[in-house]
Automatic annotation (TrEMBL):
One of its GO terms (molecular function) is dioxygenase activity. Pfam families: 2OG-FeII_Oxy_2. Keywords: Dioxygenase, DNA damage, DNA repair, Iron, Magnesium, Metal-binding, Oxidoreductase. Residues 110-207 form the Fe2OG dioxygenase domain. GO terms for biological process: DNA alkylation repair. This is Alkylated DNA repair protein. Its cofactor is Fe(2+).
Length: 208
């Protein structure tokens, strides 16, 4: 697995890019496979929309609740809590369970749950955050499968401010492992010129 040295001051504000396969940035590991599900992505899209029930979520910011700029669904054996919202437990539909098994094999990790996010167009987005909820355990592994419109996905190192940008293309798989959720934040910025939708499946394992 290639290891990337920490950046100099001049490099901190330049975007780095991932290569196919596993890559280490200090104690954080990223896995990137742009063609993971490319062969049947259109068929997957139609089947998923038929099996998944999407809804508008809310988050609590400075004591006030706001609608999130995307649709979502949660499937797993336990409820999932983040930003003041609790998503109830639901059994995984057959297709999601099959995709989870494939992602487990590639990520070399165990998953039991998935958060589905549906971005209706480039106005829907996700702000800077880390998936570091206590329910996910000490060093959670997150596998992100993308279908539909390609969207930029940005990562920034908390201390050095090093940046990584990945274009999450149709059928791609990105895995974040090691100390990634402690050392990095990630975001999906707005892209107002994009009019097509995107589905994102983030597989994870709830601790306990």
């Amino acid at each position: 697995m290639p290891t990337i040295d920490m950046p100099t001051n001049a490099e901190r504000f330049q975007f780095h890019h991932l290569v196919t396969g596993w890559q280490a940035f200090g104690n954080s590991r990223f896995g990137w496979w742009p063609d993971f599900a490319i062969g049947g992505s259109e068929n997957l899209w139609q089947q998923l929309l038929a099996q998944v029930t999407l809804q508008t979520g809310t988050v609590q910011v400075f004591g006030k609740r706001h609608s999130i700029p995307r649709l979502q669904a949660w499937y797993g054996p336990k409820p999932y809590r983040y930003s003041g919202e609790t998503l109830p437990a639901q059994a995984l539909p057959p297709l999601l369970d099959s995709l989870m098994q494939q992602c487990m094999e590639r990520a070399q990790a165990r998953f039991d749950s998935v958060l589905v996010n549906y971005y209706r167009d480039g106005r829907d987005h996700m702000g800077w955050h880390s998936d570091d909820e206590p329910e996910l355990g000490a060093n959670p592994v997150i596998a992100s499968l993308s279908l539909g419109a390609a969207r930029d996905f940005d990562l920034r190192q908390r201390q050095s401010k090093q940046r990584i940008r990945v274009s999450l293309t149709d059928g791609s798989l990105l895995v974040m492992a090691g100390r990634c959720q402690h050392e990095w934040q990630h975001a999906l910025p707005k892209r107002l010129r994009i009019s097509e939708p995107r589905l994102n499946l983030t597989f994870r394992n709830l601790a306990g």
